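Hi R.,

As promised, here are both runs. First protein below:
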Amino acid sequence: MQWAVGRRWAWAALLLASAAVLAQVVWLWLGTQSFVFEHEEIAQLARQYAGLDHELAFSRLIVELRRLHPGHVLPDEELQWVFVNAGGWMGAMCLLHASLSEYVLLFGTALGSGGHSGRYWAEISDTIISGTFHQWREGTTKSEVFYPGETVVHGPGEATAVEWGPNTWMVEYGRGVIPSTLAFALADTIFSTQDFLTLFYTLRAYARGLRLELTTYLFGQDP
């Protein structure tokens, strides 16, 4: 009996050590990466359009991102608004850029929603264009409210409760191990809503982003 208990503890210790080593390897890998975008760059650009009608703001932002980063933003014919169900909330996203270590997307909800933020191996920042973003940080007893022009930063490994008011729209930039974020982003779609068409749309959007990055890397800025 004692031997069995000891073996379980040994396995637990091994798993913990493996996770720690993996995390260290991941952050070392991220330290070697060159990134296309910067958190502050996306935030400053989004702030220029805060308070405008969100569709107008998004269209202007896309034009500016293409000017600044040719070959790194999906073309209009591949942009698609896709539902996202995760952590108990429902929203919609439009992916603009995606790689193994970065993404840029437009996100929001027309009706309002809330739930668990998720806990990621990535740093994520959201700059609000319209509406309100309520955030309740883990370990606290009070929530914060963010308004158009403000940026909400979600650090690696952090978890919060989130709530968005009706017609809340934002620009989101993520940097880290992006494939690892898909587990949370797709879990409710797979196990709750079972909306497999949305699952397909989401994976297709990410695949398109990866394809664009590979094409730009191999052939230059005008694939």
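And here is the second one, sequence first, then its structure tokens:
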Amino acid sequence: MKRFIFLLLFALVGSISNGSASPACIKASDTSRVVSVGGSVTEVIFYLNLQSNLVARDITSNFPPQALELPSVGYVRSLSTEGVLSVSPTLILGEADMGPPFVIQQFRNAVVDLRIIPDTFSGNGIEEKVRCVGQILGLGKQKLEQKLNKLSVINAKIRSSKATRAISKKRYIIILMMRGTSPFVAGAGTSGDGFIRMIGGVNAMASANGWKPVGVESIIGNKPDVIIVTERAFKPFGNIGKFLSQTGLSASRAGKVGAVLVEDGMSLLGFGPRTLIVAQNILSKAHIMIKE
């Protein structure tokens, strides 16, 4: 009996070590009609070439462009039960921030297979997200490992690159959008904070919690070496010179040397496969901008 228990435990440990340990990542019984809620989840599904059974997506799922051909079920954080269930899903895959909570409960009450994909704001977290989605959708182990290996190579380069070491401890801010004249920045616990840590930097606005509007004086006082701004926030200004002068950020440490990088918000903050590519690009550009 003891030997049986030992072998059972050994088998369980082995199964966990070869895949995601989260119960949310167990293979689904019916993947014939999949609804994807969250841009990064949809991106992962397409990255794994498993989009053939997708029947709908949320409005943040705008990459790749083919995803836009699918009907929308609304915004990830403000879904309606009727809107999602109207497409008769057998499986709903969602990001951790999907909601509202009462709608999530209604999905469960409707006996729909709902999976909330674990989300960790790191390079390893991206790999685990891909692994989890692949396991749920029944992708073969060999194909899944091939896809993961591509990401692992990029992840390893980010961790070990000379650029990472050269700009280690440099101070970054990420501006998501503008609220009036106040930049809306990434504080502690956000995907932006996770991105900065992933590239080896220091979040200059870590004293704030969550995404917060802050005064320009606060940003200047926190001495960022690099300003990363989303395309959405940058678009009204047209060029870096106008962005810096009209926001007052020209007086910041980063502004004085023009160390401003503009990135697609979902690529930067979604923590899908593209986020690793963005991290590589930012490391390369920032290394040149703030080279001492």
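A quick note on the second one: The longest helix spans residues 141-160. Let me know what you think.

Best,
J.
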